[in-house]
Design goal:
Bacteriocin As-48, Chain A, two-stranded parallel sheet, 3-stranded antiparallel beta sheet, globular, alpha+beta, 34% helix
Amino acid sequence: MGCTGSRQKTVGDDGKTKKIQKPKPWKNSQPITSTQLAKMREEFWDTAPHYGGQKEIWDALRAAAEAELSLAQTIVDSAGIIVTSTELKTCYDERGAKYELPSYVLSEPTNLIRDN
């Protein structure tokens, strides 16, 4: 209760504590505009809680996905989220519910077309 040893950590498959890192570059199947990407992200976040897990954890994951790395780490740690991938792709809450995030909510594709 309140001691620093009880905080959740970002843990990899090897059991070692890891920090959240910038996601690897990815490419969409077709070039995509900034507006299309924003729409895809909004649709994902709107529907994600319906696939299970707690809304509070989804909200924390969204905040972490949209934040700078140091703030994202703080958000994840504070929410008690267990991250198995340093890119936030696969996470669990303290009850064991699994949360999977697609690449498009974590970073921009290499073939993004900027809207004017």
